[in-house]
Amino acid sequence: MRAQVQFIEGELSLIHIPLHLYPYFIQPILRLLLLSEDTHDRETIGQVPREPWMSVHRFLNISITPLECSLVCPRQLAQELFASHLERLGPLGDEASISADDYMVIQVDGDGLDAGRRVVELTSPLAMAGISIFFITTYFADYILVPTRSKGQVVRALEERGFVFEKHTEAFINQNHEHQYCRQRSHSSTSSLTITNKTDNNSDKLSETPPPPPPSNLDELQWQTFSLLRRQNVAPSVDPSIRLIQCAGRKDTGRDGLSAHMLRLRLGLVKCLAQQPRFLSLSLTDTEPASLLLEKELVQHFTSDDGRDEDGLLGTRQDVLVPIILDLRRLPLELTGISW
Predict the structure, then answer these.
(1) Global pTM?
(2) Could you tell me the pLDDT band of residue 79, with boundaries at 50, 70 and 90?
(3) Strands (E) located in 19-78
(4) Whole-angstrom distance, CA of residue 302 vs CA of residue 272
(5) 134-137: long-range contacts at Cβ-Cβ below 8 A with a sequence spacing of 24 or more?
(6) What pLDDT score does 282 carry?
(7) Residues of the chain with pLDDT > 90: what percent?
């Protein structure tokens, strides 16, 4: 059993949209979802993508939770579709934000390791090195977003924890699955992306507070993290009425590049996003089919019009998940900690 880490190159932006502004952003969100990467060429806007729909983004995530809407997309598309939209909204647009820093994606695969173990094995050394991250679990793999400027620190932190770069796979491999930072868990976890708004007064005060000395071990890191959450009155909340399933689209294509399943998936996503769901997380990459974490009741949007065909989504409908939510919007974006 081993964890494998690959860097997905690309300049990504993190976009934060408060829920009450979501209706103002539905148009750029749908354009981001449906158009090809040459959206910046104004002559192509509104045209059908020339490439297979789900393969045009190296990495894209659209997440809607009870706290906010957040997106991860290429910097170029963030500027083309959202920066200009923020300007047109005037003062109202000040409540939304696009990250100043660029981010890159680390793809994590682990043969024989559950998602919880992969989280601890990868996030612990990065947090110990003072690197802020965002963690996203999908149907096929796990992804860690880190500031592009921190890539050198990431490589050093992984090498110090026993990861070795293999040229034939172009990935970092940790052969030692009994590493001291790994702790086995019996259940996997799914984290939705949360992007903080640093304009909050409490956040400004917290940013001015001198940071504690770097932790020397995992137990000290956990203690510092949960102490901070207690001081900021951050407590987990659960809404039992939100029942989620994790599923994925199919990779098969028709002769024209778009199969019936893919067209149904695209239409279903448009229906879900148009109604502002309480919880939905969509991840697209250029190597895997679409991955979805959504409310179980939204699956009906992916069935055929006559209702006779199956919804075309991979994954069981029996394993229902209930999200545990931490509201971290009062904390600075650059804070580090431990993911569970």
Answers:
(1) 0.79
(2) very high
(3) 59-64, 68-74
(4) 9
(5) 134/14, 134/72, 134/103, 134/193, 134/194, 134/195, 135/191, 135/339, 136/61, 136/72, 136/191, 136/192, 136/193, 136/281, 136/283, 137/188, 137/189, 137/190, 137/191
(6) 95
(7) 30
The pLDDT of residue 308 is above 60: no
Q: Nearest Cα to 288, choosing from 246, 248, 247, 254?
A: 248
- Read off the tokens for 337: 């900690």
pLDDT digits (tens, 9 = 90+) for 119-131: 677 777 787 777 8
Share in percent of the chain as helix, strand, coil (round to 5):
35, 25, 40
Other C-beta atoms closer than 10 Å to the C-beta of 52 total: 16
- 191 three-class SS: coil
Classify residue 130 as left (phi > 0), alpha (psi -120 to 50) or beta: left
Q: Give the E-state strand segments of 193-279 in sequence order.
A: 237-238, 244-248
Q: What gap in Å lies between CA 164 and CA 169, rounded to an integer?
A: 11
Q: Is the distance from CB of 126 to CB of 33 less than 8 angstroms?
A: no
Q: What is the model's pLDDT at position 192?
A: 34
Is residue 19 within 8 A of residue 69, CB to CB? The reply is yes
What are the structure tokens assigned to 245, written together?
A: 């399933």
Question: Which H or E run contains 8?
Answer: strand 2-18
Amino acid sitting at position 102: D
How far is it, in rounded angstroms, from Cα 222 to Cα 104? Answer: 25
Q: Give residue 198's region: left, alpha or beta (phi > 0; psi -120 to 50).
A: alpha
Burial (CB < 10 A; 0-12, 13-18, 19+), residue 134, is buried
Closest CA to 33 of 88, 102, 76, 81: 81
